Each structure stands twice: as C-alpha cells, then as structure tokens.
Description:
Pfam families: AraC_binding (PF02311), HTH_18 (PF12833). It is built from 10 helices and 12 strands. The chain has helices spanning 102-111, 131-145, 151-176, 184-196, 204-210, 215-226, 230-248, 253-259, 265-276, 280-284, and strands at residues 2-7, 13-21, 36-43, 46-50, 53-57, 61-65, 71-73, 82-89, 94-98, 118-122, 124-126, 292-293. The protein has a 6-stranded mixed beta sheet, with helices on one face. It has a 3-stranded antiparallel beta sheet with strand order 9-1-10. It has a 3-stranded antiparallel beta sheet with strand order 5-4-7, with no helix packed on it. Helix 2 runs antiparallel to helix 3 (151-176).
Amino acid sequence: MKFVKFDISTPLSYISSGRFISKGEWCHAKRNIDSFVIIYGIEGTAYIQQAQECFEISPGSTLLLMPQTVHEGYKVSEEVVSYYWCHFYSQTPYEILDEKDLSNEFSLMRFNNFDQQVVLLPLFQAFESIEIIHILFRQLIHSQSFNRHTKYQTNLFLTSLALEITELTILNYYKSNMGNDINSSVFNSVLEWIRINIKKSIHISDIADKYNYNVDYFNRIFKQKTGMSLLRYINDRKLSKAKEMLVNTNYSIKEISYHLGFDDEKYFMKLFKKHEHLTPTQYRNAFYYTHLNNH
C-alpha cells in the first residue's frame, strides 16, 4: 500500500468535482491527465486500473489517481455504478510513501500534536465510517455549484475532505497495528461500543469501567495508539453524526444536540464551530445541489 503526503501549508487547489452515475453496462475510459483525482465509491463496483495495479471501487472505498499516469477500466460493470470524484492540483511538492514509512510519519505527527500541515492520502483504502466523507463531498460539490464561495474557500473545503481521509487512514492503521497493551479485539470492541452508544452521554470512566481499565491508563494507551485522546475521538464521532443529521433531517439544533447526548446546546454549538469553522446552521445551509454527470 502506498500513500501520498501533501504539504497543506498552502491548501490543495480545487479544479472540479461531481457525482458520476452509470447508465447500463459501463467501463471507465482510458485517460492520462495532469491532475490528481479522488474517487469515492457510493454504489456498485467500478473496476479501474492505474499503471499495473487493479482496484475495485465499492461503497466506502477511495482511490487516488495520480497525475501523468494512465488509468482505465479493466472490467465492465454490469450493475449501476455511482461515485463522487474530484480533480485537484497540489500547489506544493508531494511525496509517495510506503506503508513501512507510516509509523515514523504518524509518530512525528503525534509529537507535533497533529499540528503539522500535512495530509496523507492512500492510493486505495476501504473505510468503515463513510458518512463523513459523503457529507464533505456534498459540501464540496455544493460550494462550487452555486459560486457562493471564493476559490480559496473551495480549496479549504477540499483540504478539509483530505484531512478527514487522513484521520480515517490513521485510525485504520492503528486498528490493524495494535500492540499488546490493549489487544486488537478489545480496541475494536471499544470503537464499536462508542458507535452504538454515540447518541448517549458518554463518559470516559464508563468505557474504562466496562473494559476493566484504570481511566488514566486507558486514556493514555488510547492516545498512544491513535494519536488523539478518547474524548476527542468521542467528540469527533458525535460531530460526524451531527453533520449527518444536519443534512438528512429537519431536527432543530437543540434537538440534534439532545439526540447526541449533549447536556448543553451552547456547548454543542461552540464545539461544532471550533471543529468545523462554521455554525451548525451555516453547515446545514451548505447542501442543496449536486453536480451529476455520466462519462
């Protein structure tokens, strides 16, 4: 597995984006372009070959197409295929890393408290938590479709998407490379418990007690393994669910706050603004249009 490291001290440069939906049997055309392309599977399976590697893009998986590299379909998709796509440039030099380089890279990121201005995009990755990527793609498409934002703001939307993919990549890496302090099955069980109970008021002490760990020890090991505190992880998952509810329901901000276990609506709004740089209402208003294409 390879990863591309981008310096985002200058945001990624957005070109275009949309949602592709096939009609009948379909196979991706042969192309060689000068930009990067992120593809994110929504429905069906697309079969795309890049250089000598073949990839199956199914719902929840992402593929990064490299510039100046031939890509084409290697198999016909007989079912309906749908995916989001985004063309972009990097305004700064980038590096290609092997999986063996990731441990050192993540250690450096943790040492800097994840304040490094870099993103790491896998050439190909399948993710379990997909709703946030879906939401960010819709936000990106909407921002360029209505021209309500400057080019710089659209670049920031794209960079936010890349940062989210980076975070999910880091979590996937640590889930598959757990040490002996907390074994893999326990770690995955904790993440699943949080997912199931995300709409409740979750306290770190509740989780530590459930799995028979000292609170401070458990939180320290979790941070060592993932690069983030357990509280931050819980809040990230709650905000991810909040964004899904803002887009897909008519619940008021107060109702969403209540449904996600926040005792204080104002605290929820403050936390949302801190993480997303938008209020919940501003975020909700960002979604009305998606650019559909068939090619």
